[in-house]
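Customer escalation, tier 2.

The customer says the design service returned an amino acid string that "doesn't look like it belongs to this structure." They asked us to rerun it and document both sides in this ticket. The original structure tokens are below, unchanged.
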């Protein structure tokens, strides 16, 4: 990765920690039952982790994803990309019916679903649909869209994301549409993922459009991107860990 992009990503990581510290300094801390039951250290780190999770949220993930896409040769990249597509009403109806079937317990893998939707008899009438993608990037003339979610998304978020992925895929068969989680809280392997609520919408273990952790970052930023991001975070962590320790010890 170009040094310029490494520095920009490092700045995003560092800002997450700095924003966490600022938030904690301005936060009310009177918690009599916590104080009675827990050690001062346990209370501090609980507050810090919760506040850090807020800082290291959607905007940061989107921005880092945009930077790694550009570092990997994307000609353009944009967060919260608005795309207007025109889709035959037969496709619109079939996609909505498919999502409802999934909610009712039917299961279908991605490739089978797309193949079955593509043979739906067209109505000859169309609808214009507005889709907002958390990240869009263009590389080698191909449009790429990804819906970036928290690592434990709920079923409603997942259903909307799949609907958008299917609409984009049917409107532009040459594009890539993805559903991405920045890391896997259950382990390194995709097969380890075990958050059940959204798993009836996508096949999280096998669908090629579902990208989790390493696969997501390497898809956006090229082979080795995930490890390089961790390396950047470790470099930033040398400084931020000292800052946090000093903050705790100076309380």
């Amino acid at each position: 990765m170009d040094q310029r992009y490494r520095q920009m990503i490092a700045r995003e990581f560092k800002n997450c920690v700095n924003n966490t510290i600022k938030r904690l300094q301005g936060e009310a801390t009177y918690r009599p039952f916590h104080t009675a039951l827990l050690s001062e250290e346990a209370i501090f780190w609980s507050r810090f982790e919760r506040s850090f999770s807020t800082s290291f949220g959607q905007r940061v993930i989107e921005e880092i994803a945009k930077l790694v896409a550009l570092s990997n040769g994307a000609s353009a990249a944009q967060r919260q990309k608005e795309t207007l597509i025109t889709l035959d009403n037969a496709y619109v109806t079939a996609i909505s019916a498919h999502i409802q079937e999934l909610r009712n317990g039917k299961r279908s893998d991605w490739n089978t679903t797309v193949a079955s939707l593509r043979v739906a008899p067209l109505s000859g009438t169309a609808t214009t649909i507005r889709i907002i993608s958390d990240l869009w990037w263009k590389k080698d003339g191909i449009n790429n869209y990804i819906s970036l979610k928290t690592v434990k998304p709920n079923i409603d978020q997942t259903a909307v994301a799949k609907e958008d992925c299917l609409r984009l895929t049917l409107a532009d068969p040459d594009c890539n549409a993805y559903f991405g989680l920045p890391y896997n809280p259950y382990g390194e392997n995709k097969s380890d993922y075990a958050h059940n609520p959204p798993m009836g919408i996508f096949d999280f273990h096998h669908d090629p459009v579902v990208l989790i952790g390493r696969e997501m970052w390497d898809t956006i930023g090229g082979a080795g991107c995930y490890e390089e991001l961790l390396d950047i975070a470790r470099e930033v962590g040398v400084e931020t860990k000292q800052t946090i320790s000093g903050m705790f010890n100076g309380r």
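Tier 2 assessment: The sequence is consistent with the input. The mean pLDDT is 93. Residues 225-249 form the longest helix (25 residues). Sent an explanation to the customer and offered a walkthrough call.
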